[in-house]
Amino acid sequence: MTALPHRFDFVFLFDVTNGNPNGDPDAGNLPRVDPETNQGLVTDVCLKRKIRNYAEIAKGDAPGYAIYVQEGAILNEQHRKAYKSVRPDDPKVAKGDGKLSPQSDAELKMLRDFMCANFFDVRTFGAVMSTGVNCGQVRGPVQLSFAHSIEPIVPLEISITRMAATNEAEKKKREEGADDDQRTENRTMGRKHIVPYGLYRAHGFVSAKLAERTGFADADVDFLWEALINMFEHDRSAARGEMAARKLIAFEHDNALGRAPAHDLFERIVVRRRSGDDAYEIGDARLDNLAPARRFADYRVTIDRENAPEGVTIHELL
Which of 119, 235, 250, 295 shows its CA 20 to 30 Å from the CA of 17? Predict the structure, then answer.
């Protein structure tokens, strides 16, 4: 793989319909919300998980695309793979238990290089790998912000029932109900939280200088775009039945350090509410007279390409 020559910044828009894009376990799995603005939130960790899951599905056992942080993985065993590569004849490594530490800075670099070369998410997002079997730390070149909904959301709580019984005693209790109302009350009740509709915006950054340290290359950038565009297609569930990537716009700088601040570039992507042929800035008082947004077509996304900073190319990837 060749080194990544250019810095990238990108804007990612995605939406959810009648689903929960990122439940908060500290709030009964309610959709995450900014309490001051009522805008919906999706954490960077949630987005990275979906990228990892897509990499597992799309790449399988392809060399260089193993996933370090995966469900049920024992991290120390992931680290031990690096030690087995660097110290193939060490009986302590072969034994497979106990702590391990690098014996020199040179060995630490070899361990980190192994982890970056073999694990896509280490090479991309970085990792702290000092949990007993020590492979050091890696600062990843790709970072994502929290995603915020374009407008405030209104989470709904839906009551649900289960017709089946858990055990024989529960079934008997239902059958012995005095009337239909009592039998209905005996059904197992639950709660489901949804957002009727929300369009979310996240910002991302790809540092070419940090990519030099991890081996993150052009092919990895291409796969990152592929993952962002397709990851929701393989993440369906009862809570996330209708999530979709809507826009992916990347700003490519012609050097490693960049030609313009990321925030200036992000301001060139403007999302407005659409009403017929008109479009209004978010927060415009005229929006109070519009029905709530319920589809992506209720918004208009514009890209200001005029007078773009010298050395910056805008790619509309989706």
Answer: 250
Tokens 């912000």 map to which residue? 145
Half-sphere exposure of 72 (CA within 13 A, CB side): 0
Q: Which alpha helices (DSSP H) does 119-167 contain, by range? A: 120-125
Sequence length of the chain is 318
Distance from C-alpha of 301 to C-alpha of 247, rounded to nearest angstrom: 9
Residue 17: pLDDT over 90: yes
Cα distance between the two ends of the chain:
26
Q: Out of 10-19, 35-44, 217-226, 235-244, which region has the weakest mean confidence (pLDDT)?
A: 235-244
Q: What is the pLDDT of residues 118-140, one digit of tens each?
A: 999 999 999 999 888 989 999 99
Domain boundaries, the chain: 8-152+193-316
**71: three-class secondary structure by DSSP:** coil
Say if CB 231 and CB 245 are below 8 A apart.
Answer: yes
Q: Do the Cβ atoms of 215 and 207 come closer than 8 Å?
A: no
Mean pLDDT lowest among 51-60, 67-76, 193-202, 302-311? 67-76
Asked if 22 contacts 32 with a C-beta cutoff of 8 angstroms, the reply is yes
126-128 and 30-31 as β-strands: parallel, antiparallel, unpaired? Answer: unpaired
| Residues 153, 33 contacting (CB under 8 angstroms) | yes
What does the alpha-carbon distance between residue 43 and residue 56 come to, in Å, rounded to a whole number? 21
Strands 243-253 and 8-19: antiparallel
Q: Quote the pTM value.
A: 0.89
- Reading the block at residue 276, the tokens are 């017929």
Is 174 within 8 Å of 186 (Cβ atoms)? yes
